[in-house]
Specification:
CATH superfamily of the largest domain: Bordetella uptake gene, domain 1
Oligomer: single chain
Largest sheet: 6 strands, mixed
Helix content: 40-55%
Distance between the termini: 67 Å
Number of domains: 2
Strand content: 15-25%
Number of strands: 11
Strand order of the largest sheet: 2-1-3-10-4-11
Shape: globular
Structural class: alpha/beta
Radius of gyration: 22 Å
């Protein structure tokens, strides 16, 4: 009887301690929620983040806003979120590069992908598209490769940072075509695109949402999709594999993460808000028309997906000898 009484007292003490946290989770959110986008304004991650944040604001009844914190291929902004209080008010909209690629190439990561974060939801997947200026005079990847072979290391290939999907697309093309481009890393898609349009660099692989308007306006020429299939927004643009360059799938994705130990009830509310936002017809259509495929799903599904991506890129990075510059 004494053991039973002690056990009941222990359970009561646990419930008493947990009650305030449970109440906070049930009331969440009571103030604005920050979504950290670790790239400059104007890039594809920023674009998707703002669309989803606006709808989440309506769904949660509190302002959900994007805070841009660029640097180190997304890891600096991620580190800020990882160190934040695990209360759901500071979230990380990450790309694949920041959490599944950089850990394999950076000598010292500011966070551990699986220890320091809790998955919320997979937001979108996006294809990388190779684009060039019309002045370069190439209409497909074979012509680009031929030009690059005439000028070994002379054609500049921009990216959003070492180890980013655009950089991986370049390295995979280098290997598949037996060619060498001069890599020029930028701190995000917007400055890379600006310099491409200005003629400072010759080619870049970027997420479709950030370049689709320039392609449609004729300011850039799309010459290949670095993905496993053609994209619905650019159905006439063949994949790199279709053009004779296999093993060049560098598809990107954006996922929402919270600091580790964020209460499950808060994660559940955030997950529902993301899924409801993506299922909203206006949000869904806006994303699809720009080349981003809405996904959604459970936190558990995102966790499994991230582990598979982490293993995939780890293997590819090791095979290609990719290291931080």
């Amino acid at each position: 009887m004494r053991k039973i009484r002690a056990g009941l007292i222990g359970i009561a003490a646990f419930l008493a301690a947990a009650a305030p946290q449970f109440a906070k989770a049930q009331d969440f959110p009571t103030r604005p929620v920050q979504i950290v986008v670790a790239f400059p304004p104007g890039g594809p991650t920023d674009f998707v983040g703002r669309i989803v944040a606006d709808k989440m604001t309506q769904l949660l009844g509190q302002r959900v806003y994007v805070d841009n914190k660029p640097g180190a291929n997304g890891t600096l902004g991620g580190a800020d979120v990882a160190k934040s209080d695990p209360d759901g008010y500071s979230l990380f909209l990450t790309t694949s590069g920041a959490v599944t690629v950089s850990p394999h190439i950076m000598p010292k990561m500011p966070f551990d992908t699986f220890r320091d974060f809790t998955p919320v939801a997979l937001v979108t997947t996006v294809h990388e598209v190779l684009v060039v200026s019309p002045q370069l005079g190439v209409k497909n990847v074979k012509e680009l490769v031929a030009l690059a072979k005439k000028k070994p290391g002379g054609l500049t290939f921009a990216s959003t940072g070492v180890g980013s999907p655009p950089h991986l697309a370049q390295l995979l093309l280098d290997a598949a075509a037996d060619v060498k481009f001069l890599h020029v890393p930028y701190r995000g898609a917007a400055p890379a695109l600006t310099d491409l349009l200005g003629g400072q660099v010759q080619v870049v692989a970027l997420d479709i949402p950030v370049v689709i308007s320039q392609i449609q306006a004729g300011k850039l020429v799309a010459i290949g999709i670095a993905g496993d299939k053609r994209d619905a927004v650019l159905p006439d643009v063949p994949t790199l594999a279709e053009q004779g360059y296999p093993n060049t799938d560098a598809s990107n994705w954006y996922a929402l993460l919270a600091p580790a130990k964020t209460p499950p009830a808060v994660i559940a509310k955030l997950n529902k808000a993301v899924n409801d936002a993506l299922n909203d017809p206006a949000v869904h259509d806006k994303l699809v028309k720009t080349g981003a495929t809405p996904v959604g799903g459970t936190p558990e599904a995102l966790g499994t997906f991230m582990k598979a991506q982490y293993d995939k890129w780890g293997r590819i990075i090791k095979e290609n000898g990719i290291k931080a510059e």
